[in-house]
Amino acid sequence: xxxxxxxxxxxxxxxxxxxxxxxxxxxxxxxxxxxxxxxxxxxxxxxxxxxxxxxxxxxxxxxxxxxxxxxxxxxxxxxxxxxxxxxxxxxxxxxxxxxxxxxxxxxxxxxxxxxxxxxxxxxxxxxxxxxxxxxxxxxxxxxxxxxxxxxxxxxxxxxxxxxxxxxxxxxxxxxxxxxxxxxxxxxxxxxxxxxxxxxxxxxxxxxxxxxxxxxxxxxxxxxxxxxxxxxxxxxxxxxxxxxxxxxxxxxxxxxxxxxxxxxxxxxxxxxxxxxxxxxxxxxxxxxxxxxxxxxxxxxxxxxxxxxxxxxxxxxxxxxxxxxxxxxxxxxxxxxxxxxxxxxxxxxxxxxxxxxxxxxxxxxxxxxxxxxxxxxxxxxxxxx
Length: 383
Known about the structure:
InterPro entries: GH (IPR017853), Glyco_hydro_b (IPR013780), ISOA1-3-like_C (IPR048650). This protein is of the alpha/beta class and 383 residues long.
């Protein structure tokens, strides 16, 4: 049928013992001390075991939503036989918190950028076992994530009682679609920050359909019951946005595909990755830190400098010294389109880069509040 694989909704229910549980039926012999009651979590659930060892199914992509409605939460702990990937719900929650400027998440955010080795490395899994996402069919869309502090689910007919209450969203200063120009600019910047984060994180990025053009559900975070424009992909809106956020998403996706270091089969080590703070080699993992930066050795691009400033204050960042080379700006989410991504085809590219020259000559780069950047190392023609 040419099916690549399967994502199992609320897959943790498949790891619980059923009312028909009988070790003799499953394994052919009794298990010592087997006193399981209905719903008990099994260390070797038979259905997951059989799927994982099936000659056909074991060769396709198997993805678990590693929690269920009964409160079982198994992100990083789902029985995997080395095959199963997981919707990384912790990635979603940490990235949302850090990018909206919540204290206490810089270290956890760094783990997310590395493919969550804290969750998967010890169990022998790889970065691709982490399905990274910021938004999905449940919850806010990307544009709603930066537009609403609260859910607006009245259209569902349940008096706004349905849907998730803890969205880790931020409306950037005003609730709802109608907002000031400055708020709307900040919202677009935050959307670019989220998408850039997805594209530079180790693991598998998952993008919710419509987020690439800014699909809104009006703040409704539980739209399963709607067969209308709320859930439909708006191709006309995509065309309207093609010169703005859609362009940014396309270029960032292309950049990830071209970069050898952004889809690794193993977790990055110190030989490839270095952490930085406002100064090179001095990362700040304190409770109040809202700045994370790293350099990545890349066999195709040479070396990348990636930084996130999620503070409400701007900062001038000191860049790592690379004698004979200079850092060249590629992505800056604080800039309006098309200067948010300085691709080679941009007619004004050289002029835009020249505006940074006095900073880059001194090995510095100015970052606005709530922004992220990607710089690439290039030969210094002046040297």
